[in-house]
Amino acid sequence: MLTTTIINYQTNELQEKTLKPATGIQGEYLIGRHPSCDLVLDSPVVSRVHGRIICQEGKCFFTDLGSTDGSRINNEEVDVNQNWLLKEDDIIRIGEFVLLVKDLELYGSSQEANLVDGNSPGIKQWSKGEITVRCVQVIDETDDVKTFRFVAEPPILFSYKPGQFVTLD
Question: Is the model's pLDDT at 91 over the cut of 90?
Fold first, then answer.
């Protein structure tokens, strides 16, 4: 669980939001303008699925998922797929929205097989070999395009770059 204060600096609207994953995946929160996101930011400059926050092994990380207009944390630009360690009072800027990180309730993970250190200290990431996943959500993007969300149990990070693919069996 993650509590944030969200400020729309264009309209001066302020709201407090406690994020709980809609899919029941412990510690993963999607941020974007699509209604299936855990935190919906309604603005044309926010990508459909802009970024995510993953909490595991006692730490939370923000990742920009290849958004059109990018993200900033504490006024520093976040590179695409960079895992940025969050702490209380960090400021995440997405379009005209400012998210102030207030409370972090963290989760642990005991998954060790086929894991390596990610881009940030403390986060684990799948690297090679087979992994069993479960489809937890299907998002209809257009009439002929769908986004599928998969999760391993227990959850582990699977980083990717735009244009990459994975073979499912």
Answer: yes
Maximum alpha-carbon separation in the chain = 49
pLDDT digits (tens, 9 = 90+) for 57-84: 667 889 999 888 899 999 999 988 888 8
Q: How far apart are CA 2 and CA 8, in angstroms?
A: 19
Express the helix, strand and coil content of the chain in percent, nearest 5 each.
0, 45, 55
Helices (H) and strands (E) in the chain, counts: 0, 15
Residue with tokens 């969050």: 86
Give Cα 93 to chain centroid, integer Å: 14
- Listing DSSP states for 55-88 in one string gives EETTEEEEEE-S-SS-EEETTEEEPBT--EEE-T
Task: Supply 123's token pair.
Answer: 């986060």
For the stretch 112-139, pLDDT in tens is: 333 344 444 444 566 667 777 888 788 8
Match 């379009």 to its residue by tokens.
95
d(CA 27, CA 18): 12
Q: Does residue 111 have a pLDDT over 60?
A: no
| Six-digit token string for 119 | 């881009």
Alpha-helical (H) ranges within the chain are: none
